[in-house]
Specification:
alpha+beta; disordered C terminus; 21% helix; Nucleoside Triphosphate Pyrophosphohydrolase; 169 residues; 4 helices; five-stranded mixed β-sheet
């Protein structure tokens, strides 16, 4: 599937409606587990594992499912760190970020069940140091990571953030 088609598919599948997403922050040995998504127009996007909630399952159940699908890990979920709102038409999401710990398994790149085998947008899984994360262009990394001084910053934030919603431009 070409990048232009991927961007159109993402907009068609997730656009013009509000989504609630769950995300897990997994830090080990001064590195954070990040996953790369192909977003279209030959652009990519790094963030922590996570995804959309399914009706009838609570946030923790959804986050455990997302970790199983995307990276093959069973996790223990800790505290809710913060809430982020993304609003960049046609996409709009409320994102819940949780602290997580690995329970069982070794991380490996999985799949996104919302896309067929030939349409997968998951590209790479990587443990990243703060320096590696900072070396990425802002346009290709989730805005929660812009300008952080340490991974501990993520655990100190409390409440709701929207950061001007400019990271997919």
């Amino acid at each position: 599937m070409s990048p232009d088609k991927i961007g159109n598919k993402i907009a068609a599948k997730f656009g013009n409606r509000l989504r609630t997403r769950v995300n897990g922050v997994l830090i080990q040995e001064e590195k954070i587990l990040m996953i790369n998504h192909q977003m279209g127009d030959q652009s990519d996007f790094w963030s922590v594992p996570g995804g959309g909630m399914k009706f009838g399952s609570n946030a923790k159940q959804n986050l455990k499912r997302e970790f199983q699908e995307e990276i093959g890990l069973e996790i223990q979920i800790g505290k809710l760190l913060f809430v982020h709102e993304f609003l960049e038409s046609p996409l709009h999401a409320i994102e819940l970020f949780f602290e997580v710990e690995r329970s069982v398994g070794e991380p490996h790149l999985g799949w996104d069940p919302e896309f067929t085998k030939n349409e997968q947008i998951l590209r790479e899984l990587k443990w990243m140091s703060l320096e590696e994360l900072r070396s990425l262009p802002n346009a290709s990394v989730h805005q929660i990571f812009w300008g952080i001084n340490s991974f501990e910053d993520l655990g100190m934030w409390k409440g709701y953030f929207n950061f001007e919603n400019k990271y997919l431009k």
